[in-house]
Amino acid sequence: MELIIKPLYSLEELLDMQRLEQDVWGDDFTPIHQTITVAKNGGIILGAYDKDKLIGFLYSFPGFKNDSVFLCSHLVGIDIAYRGQGIGEQLKRKQKELALDKGFKLITWTFDPLESANANLNIRKLKGVCRTYIEDCYGKLDGKLNSGLPTDRFLVEWHLDSDHVRNEDGYNHRDAASVFIVSMNEAGLPYIKNVNEEVMKQLESFDTLSITVPTQFQAMKKADFSLAKEWRTQTREVFQTLFSQGFIVVDVERKQGAITQQYILIKQTEVNIELV
Predict the structure, then answer these.
(1) pLDDT given at position 65
(2) pTM: predicted TM-score of the whole model, two decimal places
(3) Backbone angles phi, psi at 172, to 5 degrees
């Protein structure tokens, strides 16, 4: 594969992007009049090509909050035949480079906290952080990946020029207290046996926590939808509680082939970044 990543500007390029977006999400797609306006007015839209074939894209535009200007990254889509090859990460790295050139210090985006591959990229590899849980962020969506459950999302903050992003050492996972006690059912699917009430009742005593999530959430939805719904409900409640108590997601612990992985949270005062 001869991977080329470049900005998309022309109508033809953005029509190709729209077709790929439909392939990835089904009936959901962004109107051309929106993407072409963003491309010509300060947004960053990137395409990943294998020679002349568009195989991935990234769509982002400027956002504002109070006196802060940041880049809002809305979509990343990869052709199904090219997934698992790090193309999404390369798109994000190029986005970071161009964003810094334009003067942006922060990029934000959302993702489903139960989508483990996205968590691994966004939190562990890129070193985004999260302290905001948005319940049913987009309302009902009927695309391939979102149908059937509330569209709960993490809001990721990627502080491009922060010590946190530059830090290669990460955090000490061994000291993390587990919030969930997880077991396996007869079908070999992970379920939350119970919440560790000892931890939840004494949050002020802990500096580092871990929250377990499944690594194959889409497969779980197909195999046992009610179990997937329980994961959504129980993780929602716990994340909202921990964020309200000053904890922030800073890392992911992921082992090859495991059926679960862990979010690592620490007290917000211990994160060496300037939050906005």
Answers:
(1) 87
(2) 0.91
(3) -80, 100
